[in-house]
Design brief:
Layout lengths: L10 E3 L2 E3 L3 E3 L16 H8 L6 E7 L16 H16 L4 E6 L17 E2 L8 E4 L2 E4 L4 E2 L2 H20 L4 E5 L5 H6 L14 H4 L1 H10 L8 E5 L13 H13 L5 E5 L9 H11 L6 E4 L4 H9 L5 E4 L1 H5 L3 H7 L30
Helix pairs in contact: 1-2, 3-6
The chain binds 2-Phenylacrylic acid.
């Protein structure tokens, strides 16, 4: 199959008009100041990618306790806000749109990254068999403490506070990161969540935290400017659920009623390929969500064309291709060769492998 013209048909994601269906996926790059303030080179990086239908920012912590890796950005201080404002201004000047991905890592963290060397928090005290990246390189994630009910309520306030900073920073909306084994996912899936209070047990209880976060964020942005990211295949960060299809089916159906901008689904992660059974389950789950669906994970222009032509997806978010191809929509449109991303410069470092990937022709 060839490239569908539908990839370049404008549409609406909730309240946000997008000129094409080729979105920039959230990409962790670990190039902020250690206090979480984005550096000025991020203005160049995001500006270069403004021809995307929608940019979803790299995962951005909502609070000091939400941090899990070295040099990731935050959106919980006036300094963060001012630095992000320059980035959103640059994207808007380039004709683009950008959402802020609101992130709390939960147990995927290390005491050395957290205030006063505290333990990370999660739905339970189960330690992840996973690693994070600290000042000392890769280290095993620390044993977490289960959040109290008061701790959950305070974290919901942190999401609301971060959404307020995101609005002040000029973001067009926010994406609530509930995927990839981070805090909200640690509540959704019962391989980690063993609580016996109102936030554990059946799936209605396990999704309560996510729904309360959405309600709090909806006080700041309208639902049509809020997206949610999920990863029902649970491939990352030692996640598991006893019945993923039932769990995520209930979550999709519930989110379907909220008139959100979109549901964004990680369909495969770079650590594994999805099987036919996985693809079939993703398809059955997809039928449970009536709004805009953003597919992500391993797509190229042809697969994206198929997904959009068939009505399966509204848009497709590209990750690794966007690291190396700032003008990705144009390259897909004309069938140009792609620059290959260099894995060695994905995380941390300077402008090399960040703002220096070449455009097809002269830069915008
Ligand atoms: C890669 C490295 C660190 C974090 C995610 C925020 O998986 C991430 C992430 C990805 O959602």
């Amino acid at each position: 199959m060839s490239i569908s013209e539908k990839l370049f048909e404008p549409t609406r994601l909730g309240d946000v008009e997008i000129p094409n269906r080729i979105l920039m996926a959230p990409l962790t790059r670990n190039r902020s100041e250690s206090d979480g303030t984005p550096k000025s080179w991020a203005e160049t990086y995001y500006y270069q990618r403004a021809s995307s239908g929608l940019i979803i920012s790299e995962a951005t912590q909502i609070s000091p306790m939400g941090k899990g890796y070295i040099d990731t950005p935050g959106i919980h201080t006036a300094e963060h806000m001012a630095a992000w404002k320059k980035i959103t201004d640059a994207v808007h000047a380039g004709g683009g749109r950008i959402f802020c991905q609101l992130w709390h890592v939960g147990r995927i963290s290390h005491t050395s990254l957290l205030p006063d060397g505290r333990a990370p928090v999660s739905s339970s005290d189960k330690q992840a068999d996973s690693q994070t990246f600290t000042a000392n390189g890769f280290e095993a994630t620390s044993k977490p403490e289960a959040l109290s009910i008061d701790g959950i309520q305070a974290t919901i306030k942190d999401y609301q506070n971060a959404a307020q900073f995101a609005r002040a920073a000029g973001f067009d909306g926010v994406e609530v990161h509930a995927a990839n084994g981070y805090l909200l996912d640690q509540f959704l899936q019962n391989g980690v969540n063993n609580r016996d209070d109102a936030y554990g047990g059946n799936v209605e209880n396990r999704m309560r935290f996510l729904l309360e976060v959405l309600a709090a964020v909806e006080g700041i942005f309208p639902p049509g400017r809020i997206g949610v990211r999920l990863s029902p295949l649970g491939q990352a960060n030692d996640m598991s659920d006893s019945d993923p299809e039932a769990t995520f089916g209930a979550i999709y159906s519930t989110l379907s009623l909220r008139n959100l901008a979109y549901l964004h689904v990680v369909e495969s992660f770079f650590t594994s390929d999805s099987s036919d059974e996985d693809a079939a389950m993703l398809k059955r789950l997809r039928s449970r969500y009536e709004g805009n669906y953003i597919a992500n994970g391993g797509y190229d222009g042809e697969r994206a064309s198929e997904a959009i032509e068939s009505g399966y997806a509204t848009a497709v978010a590209f990750g690794r291709p966007y690291i190396a191809n700032p003008d990705l929509p144009e390259r897909i449109r004309i069938g140009a060769d792609m620059n290959e991303p260099n894995q060695e410069t994905f995380y941390g470092g300077d402008e090399t492998g960040y703002t220096d990937y070449p455009f097809l022709s002269s830069r915008p």
